[in-house]
Amino acid sequence: MVGLPEIAALGVVIGFAFMLGVSDAPNASAALIAARAGGYPRVMAFSFAVHVVGGLLAGQAVAVTMTGLVHVPVGELPTVYVAGGFPSLCFALVATRRGVPVSASIAIVGGLAGAAAVEGGLSAVGWGGFHGLRPYGVAGALAALVVSPVLGGVVAAVTRRAIGAVTRRASRVALAPLRGSIWVTAGVVALADGSNDGQKAMGLATAVLVASGTIGHFGVPLWVKAMVAVVLATGTAAGGRRIVNTVSSKFYRGGPLDGLSAQSSAAAVIIGAALLGAPVSTSTVVDSAMIGTGAARRRRHVHWPTVVTVAGAWAVTVPVCALAGAVGEAALKLAGHVA
Fold first, then answer.
1. pLDDT > 70? residue 26
2. Which of 2, 94, 242, 289: CA 20 to 30 A from 171?
3. Domain chopping of the chain, boundaries
4. Residue 17's closest CA among 211, 285, 235?
């Protein structure tokens, strides 16, 4: 039976899906805008449509990983999701409004870990690790979230140098199809983003439905996929203009080949992560790919103060959100005792 805690938890999960969209707004659009491939309305409409498709085509590997972040009794799961998720969303919202592209994914991992630790002690946190290359639990998720942007930056730098070597003597006519392919790579990024990030919210929503007895076993229902896909895509289109401007111009303003390098590299990393069930932050992967591309071509033209500011925001996200989740869970437990 779905009660007030479950409804509140589902509300937080939907808010999480929306914030994923807001923080991911630059993923399929920043490179297009930086490369002057299209205007803002056209690019965002394209991003919205492809994100929806990506969400509908999503698998369940990342969703399963998300359900292993906490180990608490099913009756306490909605409360932990509310206590850990709500302050994490607030943190991501404040950062986004200030134009800082933080990761809602990193925030929710920290928030849920903090709330679970207060609810059931450190053993209630699904610390996890790796099964081979497949991550699980908090440690596996955080490792994937840390490694993926580094990998995105390195792959983008190598890709840009390779493209530069191949096209150094190419004519403008010969380069035209290559420049046009940035729309293809942006579409692939949007598909991968809608799938990887969509699965995070889908997994949490499905866990709440299982805990309430609404469904008998874990399996993301089609209506949950559709709901999350549309909400996430709406977030990309509605709330991310300042973030798009930050990523498209304040890291490094390059040309079409730079955008192609960044997008293709980010897409490869995100798709690989989805196949492994790794809940990576697609926003940090794309940001790092843009930086890696700029560093490979004109290192002095990268806006390093902006990079340092964003990296600092990423670094404090987990501890801040973990503390906020712990405080939120303590407050809810105290309120329950008083009531």
1. no
2. 289
3. 4-334
4. 235
